[in-house]
Amino acid sequence: MKALRFDGSLRLVDDAPVPRREGEALVEVICAGICNTDLEIVKGYAGFRGTLGHEFVGRVVESSDATLVGRRVVGEINVGCGSCALCRAGDARHCVARTVLGIHGRDGAFAEYLSLPTRNLFEVPDSIDDEEAVFVEPLAAALNIFEQVDIDKATTVAIVGDGKLAQLIVRVMALTGCSLTIIGKHAEKLELAKVTGARRFKLQRDDRIVSIERNGGSIADEKFDVVIETSGSPSGLRLAMNLVRPRGTIVLKSTHHEATPVDLSQVVVNEVKLAGSRCGRFHPAIDLLASRTIDVGPLISERMSLTNGVAAFERAASPSTMKVLMWAK
To answer: Do 230 and 165 touch, CB atoms closer than 8 A?
Structure first.
């Protein structure tokens, strides 16, 4: 089968074995999305070697559960051991023995087929099209913040970053009615967040933060209850530290291969909480897409084929690009 593999360099192969794992379902990939984690992996993050990709929609072609065969599905990317306390509690996201689709110990979705246990698969309602379904996994990651931090109308929230995940986060945060601000480096990306009603500010090269709206005011003296760092850059945490109020919370969403320099004395002196945030539950994300509460269409920049996967990665790495989708066929 065709697969986009990374072994120190990114290359398309046409002789990859079909990934059949005992007791798991075989899924024919329809469409998959490139996220920032994929881009960081090819720079050296996580030390992964194999087929990349973890945001996907596909169709089950083989399964011990006959009712799944032929069904469109998305898949939770963490596959736990099934027997530890976390797995028995129904949460394999932090199982120490887990594999992670396209990230750790398991070939991913940039291929014609992938393998996952049936317990990881979620059927996609007819009201969600293939391209929208690809966003279930990153939308679930955005929603995971609500499992970790209490946010309501009285909360002041700043989002550092204006990329793919930041756009999903600003949309789900807007549902709370909170006071919402987004800070990024790209005016055209910040424009995409206008629909949420968030205040939008552009980070200049000299680290000044400038409103891109008329009479938008300044945030030079503002501090926020919650700052969500999703810039994908090591410098994002430094900015988040400058924005959070004493005893506020910073939620860390970025994964990158570079070291993150930070003065931890500020965390101590200001009693700041740092919360790492990763994968979320799929059902809430599916519900938001099915109800048309979240519109992800404007976040798609490019549609390419798996055959052009290397070029798709080059396109996805452009600062002006949002989501690049790869169709397996």
So the answer is: yes
Round to the nearest angstrom and report the end-to-end CA distance of the chain: 11
> What is the rounded CA–CA span in Å between residue 177 and residue 152?
7
53 CB-near residues (< 8 Å, 6+ apart): 4, 32, 34, 38, 101, 102, 108, 109, 110, 111, 326
Q: Alpha helix locations (H) across 17-92?
A: 36-41, 85-88
167: CB partners within 8 A, 6+ apart:
189, 192, 193, 299, 322
Report the chain (329 residues): mean pLDDT per 10 consecutive residues.
97 97 97 97 95 98 97 98 95 96 98 98 98 98 97 98 97 98 96 96 89 79 96 92 97 89 91 97 98 98 98 96 97
The pairing of beta strand 3-6 with beta strand 50-51: antiparallel
Q: Which two tokens stand for residue 84?
A: 């530890």
C-alpha 131/C-alpha 76 separation (Å) is 17
CB 284 within 8 A of CB 293: no
What residues contact 329, with CB distance under 8 A and at least 6 apart? 30, 112, 305, 306
Nearest to 134 by CA among 243, 273, 289, 281: 289
Q: Is 90 left (phi over 0), alpha (psi -120 to 50) or beta?
A: left
Contact 18, 113 (CB under 8 A): yes
Q: What is the pTM of this model?
A: 0.96
